[in-house]
Amino acid sequence: MLSLLLARRCLPRRLACVPRRWHSAEAPFEHLNPVTEQDVQQFASILPPSSVLSTLPPSSTAASELDQYNNDWMGKYHGKSTTVLKPKTTQQVSDIVKLCWERRVGIVPQGGNTGLVGGSVPIHDEVVVNLSNMNKVRSFDPVSGILVADAGCILQSLTDYIAPHHHIMPLDLGAKGSCHIGGNVATNAGGLRLLRYGSLHGSVLGIEVVLPDGTILDQLTSLRKDNTGYDLKQLFIGAEGTLGIITGVSILTPPAPQASNNVILALPHFDNVLPLYKEVKRQLSEILSAFEFIDRTAYDLAVKHGQGRGLTEEEVDGAQCFVLVETSGGRRDHDEEKLNDLLESLLGADQPLITNGVLSQSPAQFSSLWSLREGVTEAVSKEGKAYKYDISVPLSTFKQVVDVTRDHLRSKGLLHDGAVKHVIGYGHVGDGNLHLNVIAEQYTDEIQDALEPFIYELVASHRGSISAEHGIGAMKTHALHFSKSDVSIALMKQIKQLFDPRGIMNPGKVIEL
Ligand code: FAD
Ligand code: MLT
Ligand code: ZN
């Protein structure tokens, strides 16, 4: 049997490191110029030598040192930039951008490079402007909770900075140890707290941006209310670096909850998720802060790859999926009582919606339960190569979408023996956001062609969105029309044209010009 499996694995398969419709390596951008040695000399007159990484003279950076900037977190998108610039100040960013504008050199703004749609790496040889050296907190007002920070501050470091003042960041995501606040704003990142604190379109109060011609747009206001005409900052939130480089962010941070608890619930059927959500909302009301979903395979992968301590076999017996509920409230004993009451009523019901529930009993257990959910992304990347679809669809269709995709791949002969290992679903139920992941041995054209446009058509048939939170990047430019009307796309192009008529800022991302 083993030899049969091995023999099958050795059969020649159509493999492609750079699948054709993701990055067309052959055709460079016709409207842009490559970086030259003279450009590098000019960059070196703006930045200290340690901030110019280039394989071109007068720098002498080894090509391998640029790998971390040229390749994305998933190992799916690969650029060929010769030059990475790491400015420390807004003025330096402006000077670099001016030069690129004059020379018509493409720029990729880059934060922590944790993006999942290929937006953060070059398509060809664009210059990477990496913000990691812009990492200072500019101010924090503990009374209003308004934080003003350089765009390159890592999300976790901002969380740590404001923690002694009993405030938290309004967003939290698995990539918090690497992603930048500027990258979060540029992608309008969602994450695990959106249910409670809403999107960045609400909590970002102001931004500072370097426009494609090098102009500094200072909108770094710290006002809760400002109704003076068009709210320009909103255009940059979620623009994925196509309209300018965000250099500073002013953001409203909420007070830290006095008490946070969580519980993981095992469900016998997916059909129970919605009635459970309704019941949890009814019973927990104002203290409910997260309602996250993982299907059985996603859970098993998280456990397999060491993301949090799994439940006992008895506890997960027969579970088809799991829900993680978090509460954040004002009084621990009050919240614990509510959670205990919830569990008791769920387990004691005539037709229980859950088969089991495990309440965290300590900060370590609280983190461990969260890891089972947050760690799915990491587990997936350890398991294989992920095709990640980050979609908004009606909650009632979550399971159907996963099942239909799996059946479709099976019908194409691609499941298991055919190179796809798993099709899983997890995500933010409270936000109507399903993460549909197809995990394969390799990225291949065959799987890609089976998945697209199939999945986008499926999403459109449910009147959903092809991107709930990760963005469009390089991955979905060709698919934008599944979620946006022709009129919307035409307006987006006009906005791009207005800000960036030379098309230098993150070319090839979000919209095809
Ligand atoms: P990058 O990856 O560097 O860039 C992302 C995009 O923003 C690119 O288009 C880039 O050009 C642009 N950009 C970056 N910085 C700037 C800037 N200063 N100015 C202008 N444009 C800029 N996303 C979610 O929404 N929710 C999640 O729960 C979530 N969880 C994740 C968990 C893991 C383990 C991983 C690896 C990723 C996750 N993501 C999630 C995706 C990713 O972390 C977010 O999109 C994040 O906001 C990207 O931040 P970054 O600093 O890494 O940006
Ligand atoms: C998540 O919710 O875990 C993130 O958006 C990342 C992912 O989709 O894997
Ligand atoms: Zn997510």
TrEMBL record:
Gene3D superfamilies: 3.30.465.10, 3.30.70.2190, 3.30.70.2740, Uridine Diphospho-n-acetylenolpyruvylglucosamine Reductase, domain 2, Vanillyl-alcohol Oxidase, Chain A, domain 4. One of its GO terms (cellular component) is mitochondrion. Keywords: FAD, Flavoprotein, Oxidoreductase. Residues 77-256 form the FAD-binding PCMH-type domain. The keyword Flavoprotein applies. InterPro entries: FAD-bd_oxidored_4_C, FAD-bd_PCMH, FAD-bd_PCMH-like_sf, FAD-bd_PCMH_sub1, FAD-bd_PCMH_sub2, FAD-linked_Oxase-like_C, FAD-oxidored/transferase_4, Oxid_FAD_bind_N. One of its GO terms (molecular function) is FAD binding. Its cofactor is FAD. Signal peptide: none annotated. Pfam families: FAD-oxidase_C, FAD_binding_4. It comes from the Eukaryota. It catalyses: (R)-lactate + 2 Fe(III)-[cytochrome c] = 2 Fe(II)-[cytochrome c] + pyruvate + 2 H(+). Belongs to the FAD-binding oxidoreductase/transferase type 4 family. This is FAD-binding PCMH-type domain-containing protein.
